[in-house]
Amino acid sequence: MVNNILILMILAAFLPAPLVYILGRSMGKKVSWIVFTVLLGVTIALAGLFSTVQHDVILEEYSWVSAPVSLTFGLLADGLSVPMMFTYLFVSAGATLFSVPYMERRFSLDDIEESNEQWARFYTFFLLYSASVGACMLSTNLIQFFMFFELALVFSWLLIFLFGYGDSKRNSLLYFLWTHIGGGAFLVGILGAYWTVGSFEIADLAHIADYAGAFWVGLALSLGLFVKIGALGFHGWMPDTYSESPAPVSAVLGATSVMLSTYTMSRLLPPFQAVLHDISGWFMLWALATILYAGVMALVQKDTKRLVAYLSMSQMNYCVLGVFTFVPFGVLGAISYSISHGLAIGLLFMVSGALLYRTESRDMTEMGGLAEKLPIVILATLAGFLTIGGVPPAVGFKSKFILLSGAMVRGFESGMLELIVAILAGSLATLITLGYEFRTVWRVFYGDLPEKLKEVKSVPTVMAITLLALGALSIILGIWPALITNPLEVYIEHIFPH
User: Fold this and answer.
1) What are the residues facing 27 on neighbouring strands?
2) Which of 182, 190, 315, 340 would you label with 197, given CA atoms 20 to 30 Å apart?
3) What percent of the chain has pLDDT over 70?
4) CB-CB contact of 416 with 380 (8 Å)
């Protein structure tokens, strides 16, 4: 194994950004291949660590700050960070490839003038955003984590503000304000953790429940993450942000919301189990309410991107439910479902982008009969929906099954509230999910083909490759789930040793 491989990955992701901007001003859209190569290269390097993290961890620490607070710049690759960062960067690399023809069409609209400068900005911010999220997942101390967390927010805000549809100023401001509210609550939790245990190191949170005030620290961290994941009442930013961003940006935003939030909950909250257990059932109920509300909203949508936005909001709250069971199966299911959901939501946002690219519409009532015209798009749609619906052979089947099993275990151990939540999450919420999935497939791909769509052609090659790659990985991980669950189980054994 290469020495200092983790810091080399971080440098490989961040350092090309100035070069991307400089070359982009002369190369235009061709600079996308540099970004794609960087993200794919780091993804492949992470794939090489899977076997290592099944029995060991990789920890790298570098001197950073000595006074007034001692901080090291630490990077940790283990059974949690490697599978999640691998999947996230795989989606980001695919979104980069998908973005070339998509952004050409985006720039053809009247509100943004295409230029090499615009291409340079887009791919520079896209790379920095993806790199910041990846760096979060390797961080070993809370200040370092929060720094990359906020960098990701800034770069994603720039992508929405500069390249979004409609009222991009309003949508980006709403996104910025809401996520900063969540970030503020999260920062309060970080400072509270330091005040409590005297350290910013994540590893030092292991015994925080033994200290007075730990409950309030855990509550602040939880509420900050609830904003980031779009829990009911904190979701005001989500539908417009997702639906009015360019499809490749929506894909990475959706993957970030579910994967980074679930990663953070799974990394930081288990030490708070003893102090949060009494209210965790209410958090599970809150997650269920979000699942049902957003599911019903998805059921009544006719706009393809708003459908996927509400779908994402609904399904990612299964991960909240799973983490707050505080039982091994629940947390394992939440992590593995966030991976499958990250893949599926990235895929479905790109499906909506492909439909917009070819039909010039997001209105499902103007579609129909597209199965023969867009065979790759319907295959990708089915792969995404099978994953979201927890239907074999897609990866969502095992992960959602494990998650709901954990919820049932918690219900039988704790009481009627948790048991009712588990039953409704596995029955009513699943029926709603299948309802909007079947409705969407029928309205878009079957029935009569509208006259204006009879000349529709297949999607461009790079779009097709991206859709097939993400769809194929969803199926491969469904057939061979041990690829991700084996390292995850090592992490679960670490946080639930008994």
Assistant:
1) none
2) 182
3) 99
4) no
